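Note to self: the last two entries modelled the partners one at a time, which told us nothing about the interface. This time every component goes in together.
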Amino acid sequence: MASPSKLQHLNVEKIRADFPVLDQEVRPGVPLVYLDSGATSQKPASVIEVMDRYYRTQNANIHRGVYKMAEQSTEDYEMARGKVAQFIGAAKPKEIVFTRNATESVNLVAYSWGRGNLNKGDVVVLTEMEHHANIVPWQMLAAEKGIRLEYIPVNDEGLLDMDALPGLLEMKPKLVSYTAMSNVMGTITPIAEITRMAKEVGAVTLIDGAQSVPHLPINVTELGVDFLVFSSHKMLGPTGLGVLYGREELLEAMPPFLGGGDMIKRVQLHEFSTNSVPHKFEAGTPAIAEVIGLGAAIDYLNAVGMDAIAAHDHELTEHALDRLAEVPGVWVFGPSAEHKSSNAAFTLKGAHPHDVAEILNREGVAVRAGHHCAMPVHEKFGVPATTRASFYLYNTKAEVDHFIEAIYKVKEIFG
Amino acid sequence: MANMDDLYREVIIDRYQNPQFSGTLDPHDYSYHDDNPVCGDHIRIDLRVDENDIVTEALFSGEGCSISQASADLLMEKINGMPLDEVRKIGKQDILDLLGIELGPVRLKCALLSLKVLKGGVYGLDEVMSLDELAAS
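The predicted structure of the combined assembly is written out below.
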């Protein structure tokens, strides 16, 4: 990770002015402190405006019409695909498939690549800190095809137990699928090391970047990873849109996922031939305005700079963990600040996470409480639920301080 | 939606911190448990009834927020000594009356989890409404 001291500090006040939703009070005199970007990020005006302009001035379906608006929409849509490719260091835009969300991207790989390449007894390695989206699709495939799921354990610190990986790789897994950043603990996993080791035994690799891609720079070509999934809405873009990066060779060999329009080359009454990659995987009219919106979100992230964002998010996390450590009765979930980013999940003795979140809400602080779609890792640590504050480029240290003060209010009520 | 001082009325905090009807019964005549999938809250209810189908003992166990735990505790108190016929008639409004507060849609489900579990126990699984249906009832 880049050293924060070498980087220019973000001008957060200027950034905040670009996010209309942040400028509001939850009640008179109580400003919104939005600390739930791990669930979904807020959107800059540039993203909202580009989508608004699309609907007001050029709405037309893509890859079909020959009139000007349709051509413009197709061009904008494909240009956004190029921006996404460049953003993650993909070699070609055709390696980018648009889906509904990161969850659908994992399901696409499980359904298409998984069904075609995994057979009874084949091993798939996951980690114990996965989001349900990178567990359940494989469990479904296990039920259908009899594949075996193995997990890289999480150690007491909340890090992946990398000592266990060589043993798991001796089982010659066909796939190693792992998160780059835990959505609960914020743990940044050693993706370069895992990818390299997995490839050495011939495994296909998939990275769940839903949490990491918004916060940390990534280069899929340098990494050599086969698949990367992430969601637009967590990286300043609109909802309803996910991304699947797949290495060209793999995408070419995979059967289609959903059948319908746009994914075909030719259809006869009893057979069809598939369109080329990536269109083979984009059946039906896609989320055109959203894709264009994601393009604008990427422009915004690039203008601020991903290294600077990573440093800022890490600094806020460090500050939050320092402050949380001062509060008696608080237990922070996951590793120390050096191994995590953007995230501080915790429990408070004597108060249930739902109650904590409710009282924080009264103080204007928006956080998430629950199991965060990662029940196994909660179970591992014996906590049914946690309260999670998550940070992004528009958050300030003052907001983190306000959040800490609000926790003291919880303590007042629950004594 | 209730303001915070109402939401965290003394009785709720007190029942949460010092429940009067927490525990399990072995043996029991009825036992049922369920989760709120949204937040992972979990409640189990055990009942003993006499030969006239009157509840003689009712205890709950599990984990959850102050609203779910306090409403479970108050509900156990209410059904102690109550004929099962009447227990079956308890509805959403009875729970809200016990708590004495109004609740938003999310916390309403916290409050109704114990009722759902109770109904699961006394009606059997198939006839029970989901939390969403109970909340809308």
